[in-house]
Specification:
This protein is about 35% helix and about 30% strand. The chain has ten helices and 14 strands. Strands 1-2-3-4-5-7-6 form a seven-stranded mixed sheet, sandwiched between helices. Strands 8-9-10-11-12-14-13 form a seven-stranded mixed sheet, with helices on both faces. Helix 6 packs across helix 8. The longest helix is centred in the middle third of the chain and has 17 residues. The radius of gyration is 23 Å and the shape is elongated. The two termini are about 35 Å apart.
Length: about 350
């Protein structure tokens, strides 16, 4: 979705937020909440609740605007309802149905994640209605672990599921026989997420089949026996979420450079600083290989071009790129770093 704005909420937003909440309830919870709870929604009461949140110094409320109307909201901070001894939560995260699946939910989640991290906390939780299955899938995809499930209730608006998130609970593993299938999965899935609209969907779907992932897994297992210290797997909360590949340069004009062959992150953990962590790991490994300069390629149109520029890369060349075993012709941007 283009031309949206994420900003802090003010009291002036609260009347519109109340109307937005009712619309979200109607779209999300119709069939879960009792009809009378949605149909008899108290706009004034909810407006006042939002005003209290805006004025609560322990909670930060954001809104999302598009075409001068509010389309979503998120808050984080001290839990609205205490749960065990957890000190932080993402308490509200809602988008209109038309805006779901656009990446905005992930964007809002990661804003809260980084802000909670910056405050020095190491974990937080999220509560979600027990019967809101699409939300469950989203929170699991974002790395959450279920830590509590309420018992069923005749009123389905009551039971909740709690998801726990650990901050900076990550490891970077060398490629091994045991994790080759995880590496293959992340590689294939990241292509699907990152190159949608750039590489033909036919190819992206093909490399994400079980058969293709198994084939890549076997290739990686063969690499383990030869040169395992050039491929690395990032796990966040025990789940495979990113990969790194460094190698000798394949580009003829840059034979004195170590090549950053790949940094891929799944969408769920983008925006949390893991790209920079993997980039620093690449520098470390290339130094061990004796290199003092780096080169890497990035397909034109990939948002990661901005990341490589931010990390100090200079765009020095554009070359043809042909998708292996498919033939689609693209353009690859080459970035050069004159000092590790």
């Amino acid at each position: 979705m283009e031309e949206y704005n994420i900003r802090f909420a003010t009291e002036n937003d609260c009347e519109e937020l109340s109307r937005l909440k009712h619309q979200v309830w109607d779209e999300t919870y119709r069939g879960i909440y009792p009809d009378e709870k949605i149909d008899n929604f108290d706009y004034e009461k909810n407006k006042n609740t939002f005003i209290k949140i805006v004025n609560n110094p322990e909670i930060v409320l954001y809104v999302v605007e598009h075409n001068k109307r509010l389309i979503g909201y998120m808050d984080y901070g001290t839990p609205h309802r205490p749960f065990r001894d957890y000190e932080q939560e993402i308490g509200l995260l809602y988008l209109l149905k038309e805006c779901q699946g656009t990446g905005l939910g992930r964007k809002l989640f990661n804003i809260a994640y980084k802000k909670i991290k910056d405050k020095g906390y190491k974990e937080f939780f999220i509560s979600c209605n027990k019967y809101n299955i699409p939300a469950h899938k989203f929170y699991e995809k974002m790395g959450g672990t279920i830590i509590h499930i309420d018992e069923d209730n005749e009123d389905k608006s009551i039971p909740q599921i709690k998801f726990l998130y650990k901050i900076d609970n990550y490891v970077i593993e060398d490629l091994s026989i045991d994790n080759a299938s995880d590496y293959a999965y992340v590689n294939s899935r990241a292509w699907l997420e990152s190159y949608k609209g750039i590489i033909d969907n036919e190819y992206l779907e093909k490399i994400n089949t079980d058969e293709s992932i198994k084939e890549l897994t076997q290739v990686l297992k063969n690499i383990v026996a030869k040169d395992p210290n050039t491929h690395f797997l990032l796990k966040v909360d025990g789940k495979p979420m990113g990969i790194l590949h460094v190698r000798k340069p394949k580009y003829e004009d840059f034979q004195d450079c170590g090549e950053l062959g790949a940094i891929y992150l799944l969408n769920a953990v983008k925006g949390r600083g893991y790209g920079k962590i993997l980039f620093e790991k690449a520098k470390e490994e290339l130094k061990k290989m004796g290199y003092t300069k780096i080169v890497n390629g990035c397909l034109e149109g990939n948002p990661s071009n901005e990341f490589y520029k931010h990390m100090g890369g200079k765009l020095v060349k554009k070359i043809p790129f042909v998708v292996k075993n498919y033939g689609q012709e693209l353009v690859e941007n080459i970035y050069y770093y004159d000092e590790i």
